[in-house]
Amino acid sequence: MSNQIAQLIDHTLLKPEATADQVKDLIKEAAELGTYSVCISPSQLPVEVPEGLHVATVVGFPSGAVKSEIKAAEAARAVQDGAEEVDMVINIPLAVEGRFDELQADIQAVRDAIPGKVLKVILETAALSDAAIEGACRAAEAAGADFVKTSTGFHPAGGASVHAIEIMQATVGGRLGIKASGGIRTAADALAMVNAGATRLGLSASKKILTEFAAQDAQEA
């Protein structure tokens, strides 16, 4: 189980005070753990990673409260600097207010700026109603996103929840990937998200969680 879970993980370091040395340590640890990718701030790009380890970054992070063209330019520069995947934060009030055509345009601007790259759309689900989560998922799908994602991990309303993942799964599951992130700190948390429909996990506690899975594997062997 630990190896399968590892390949779902974006090993993440997005603290604003993170140093270049800490990013190097993150990359080394990700390679040792066998995670799918590292997710770092765009200012830390470009980075060297071993073959097989992917590079993700964030744009409009963490508030999403910047103009769409700024997010698009940020995403294009990140890809130029080596990012293979971009996690963008939506303009959250557009989802809160049900302005889903405008939300689709916000996402579309970034989609158009990074053709051929993976686009994940951070909804900040803890700040949204169930109906807003559904509408935002549909807007992301209509704009050509590859994933919808729960959270930045920085919003005071909270991070990922099984309930939010279930709504996302019911709305776009099987067509878009679903990334759970924010507040996932144990193997039990991670497994609950996967069982609810998550196909990617954004984790900063990857080593701790994978150690717990490895211990479970050993007990079952």
From TrEMBL:
Family, similarity comment: Belongs to the DeoC/FbaB aldolase family. DeoC type 1 subfamily.
Assigned EC number: 4.1.2.4
EC main group: lyase
Keywords: Cytoplasm, Lyase, Schiff base
Reaction equations catalysed: 2-deoxy-D-ribose 5-phosphate = D-glyceraldehyde 3-phosphate + acetaldehyde
GO BP: 2-deoxyribose 1-phosphate catabolic process; carbohydrate catabolic process; deoxyribonucleotide catabolic process
Pathway connected to this protein: Carbohydrate degradation; 2-deoxy-D-ribose 1-phosphate degradation; D-glyceraldehyde 3-phosphate and acetaldehyde from 2-deoxy-alpha-D-ribose 1-phosphate: step 2/2
Chief place of localization: cytoplasm
Stated role: Catalyzes a reversible aldol reaction between acetaldehyde and D-glyceraldehyde 3-phosphate to generate 2-deoxy-D-ribose 5-phosphate.
Residues of the active site: D87 (proton donor/acceptor), K149 (schiff-base intermediate with acetaldehyde), K179 (proton donor/acceptor)
Localization of this protein: Cytoplasm
NCBIfam families listed in its UniProt record: deoC
Protein name: Deoxyribose-phosphate aldolase
Gene Ontology cellular-component annotations: cytoplasm
Any Pfam family matching the protein: DeoC
Keyword Cytoplasm in record: yes
Record carries keyword Lyase: yes
Molecular functions (GO terms): deoxyribose-phosphate aldolase activity
